[in-house]
Write a structure and sequence with these properties.
By secondary structure, the protein is of the alpha+beta class. It folds into 3 domains: 54 residues, Molybdopterin biosynthesis moea protein, domain 2 (Alpha-Beta Complex), CATH 3.90.105; 105 residues, Aldehyde Oxidoreductase, domain 3, CATH 3.90.1170; 149 residues, Molybdenum Cofactor Biosythetic Enzyme, Chain A. Helices cover 27% and strands 28% of the residues. The protein contains 11 helices and 19 strands. The strands form 6 sheets. Strands 15-14-16-19-18-17 form a 6-stranded mixed sheet, with helices on both faces. Helix 2 runs parallel beside helix 4 and helix 3 runs antiparallel to helix 4. The longest helix is centred in the middle third of the chain and has 13 residues. This is Molybdopterin molybdenumtransferase. Belongs to the MoeA family. Its EC number is 2.10.1.1. GO terms for molecular function: metal ion binding; molybdopterin molybdotransferase activity.
Length: 339
């Protein structure tokens, strides 16, 4: 940092904010630290009493905050997102499509842990829409050591910290099980709820069928729908541990790989996810999906629609944040459920 005459400051970078006060009109920074002084700025600076300025002096091995922010952008930005121009040392990433936001949390924590670096983002594994702000990044000081930014690049590796997985257009079959609805004793109120949730992802529903409590027939129907081109199967009913609830058995007998039967999420503990031939998701939905505003299904569905495979370990980790508080006014996903 050095002190120079304002008239000689063109092309130099301010090291501090310049405040303009006009009584009854404004009291704000007319120029922010990091601003590159132009010839047009000189009269304004003189009008606020700045005949001398403190400006950044280029030093070997040091980077300006805008340069450092651009390095962070290169580390963070993945496909389907755009970056804003540096402003006061900060760059933001904006979604260019609808999809699932993925964050490499391990790398993010490592880079933020270097010190003097701030990368702030929304939660990963959440739905984003075109135009949504994803993250903001900057360094804390006006100038930072090039060595630290080199360390950040090394920690970031070859793959970007942030990715958006666009949602896929899937053909779904909904199979409602239960003798009470099969024989017309009650109305199927479960399928309309599932249809409504799938509509949010522009899913084509190729079949809606009601089945009796017969696991052999359910198995056959699942395989039949797959043969007919369905690439997503949802089974409702028969998911509890009662002896006559045999939907999990029917799914297992298709030969599908069971990822989980049960999740530490309330509502939704009896949720089942399996993959047939390791590519077609088969979901067993517990009864709570029919009446609860938000459940484990709302956490898993975006990942299924983005073809983002879930693991048993990920389900096991859902316990923290897995309790829906059933708020009087639901603000999901802008709440702690599933976070």
């Amino acid at each position: 940092m050095k002190r120079i005459r304002t008239e000689d400051a063109v092309g130099h970078v301010l090291c501090h904010d310049i405040t303009q006060i006009i009584k009854g009109v404004t009291k704000d920074a007319v120029f922010r630290k990091g601003h590159v002084v132009t010839r047009e700025d000189i009269p304004v600076l003189l009008s606020v009493g700045k005949e001398n300025l403190f400006v950044w002096e280029k030093t070997e091995g040091m980077l300006h905050e805008d340069e450092a922010a651009e390095i962070l952008r290169g580390i963070c930005q993945g496909p389907y997102m755009k970056a804003t121009a540096p402003k006061e040392g900060k760059i933001e990433l904006i979604a260019e499509t609808e999809g699932l936001l993925k964050i490499d949390s391990r790398k993010l924590n490592r880079i933020n842990g270097l010190g003097e670096i701030a990368i702030a983002a929304r939660h990963g594994n959440t739905v984003v829409h075109k135009g949504d702000k994803l993250a903001g990044m900057r360094v804390i000081p006006l100038v930072i050591q090039k060595e630290k930014m080199d360390a950040a690049k090394e920690a970031g590796g070859e793959e970007p910290l942030f990715r958006i997985l666009p949602f896929k257009k899937k053909k779904a079959a909904i199979l409602a099980t239960g003798s009470e609805i099969f024989h017309g004793r009650i109305t199927d109120t479960f399928t309309p709820v599932v249809c409504q949730k799938l509509e949010e992802y522009h899913t084509e529903i190729v079949e809606q069928k009601i089945l009796d409590d017969n696991p052999e027939e359910t198995t056959k129907e699942i395989l039949r729908q797959i043969d007919r081109g369905a690439d997503f199967i949802l089974c409702t009913g028969g998911m509890s541990v009662d002896p006559d609830d045999q939907t999990p058995l029917a799914i297992k007998n298709t030969g599908a790989r069971i990822v989980t039967y049960g999740a530490p999420v309330l509502p939704g503990a009896m949720f089942l996810l399996a993959y047939y031939e390791d590519r077609i998701p088969i979901v067993g939905l517990p009864g709570c999906v029919m009446y609860a505003k938000r459940t484990v299904f709302d956490l898993a569905l975006p990942r299924i629609m983005a073809d983002d495979r879930m693991t048993a370990g990920e389900f096991a980790s859902m316990g923290e944040g897995g309790l829906c508080l059933s708020c009087e006014v639901c603000t999901f996903p802008n709440c702690g459920f599933g976070k």
